[in-house]
Amino acid sequence: MTSLAVVLVLTSGVIHATWNFLVKRSGHKVIFFWAMATVGLIVFVAPALGFALAAGFGWTALGFALGTMVLHAVYGIALTRGYYLGDLSSVYPVSRGMGPALVPLLAVIIFDETVSFEAGIGIALVVFGIYAIHIDSRFWRDVGHPLKALTTPATRVALFTGLVISCYSLWDKAGLDHDIPPMTLIGFTLIGNVLGLTPAILWATDAARLRSEWAAHKVSIVAAGLLAPLGYTLVLIALTTSKVSYVAPAREVGIVLGTAMGVLWLGEGYGLTRIWGSALVVAGVITLALAP
What is the pTM of this model? Predict the structure, then answer.
């Protein structure tokens, strides 16, 4: 990875953990996510259109844009459902950890990328760190405990969310390779987020609940609405200069911060194992950053 890509990706990871923390601590996750995506769309729609017009937006670009819109619609639904069911310090690492496990393998197959030995070690450390985060500190000998977590709805949703993340990472990388501007892709991701959750808003929410969530969390909604597209914009820029099989795992440095927020600020359990597991993730990210 280039030095610029490392800085962009690590910054994005911190931003990503921050807005996920804001979603988790909100009162109504679906309303909050829908509202923050709407804020982001209002702010980013004009630049997205401007870049699209400047680049010349043809049918191929439209196809990639519509694909990312659908994938991010599913992502918004899955993510908010996961935060209803489970802790930030468990759902967040599982969903984000699926990418490092799947993206490099799929990138080798789809994009004919190669992964160096050093990068392979880094990816392995990231994945093992995600596993270690879920070892129950009350049962140190039960290293199979994380596998038992697969039986819980929260973990299953988190795993599905991770699969969607790996899919949109690869899809958006392909879109960038077809000269679609990163800002334009961001606009379509936000449209997907908004449209994906709109049926849930119309079906299960009334105006009073919308007003209540806005009144209680309007500062957090605006902050998250700006941070989410900004963070992903940094990732897309990094993808234009580096391999997706390196960028996707390195981005997961946010797992450390997200885990700490859940354990320290939200009072979630498994503190010790989730912290040392996160340290392994950091080691993997550093290894990836230094990989040729």
Answer: 0.86
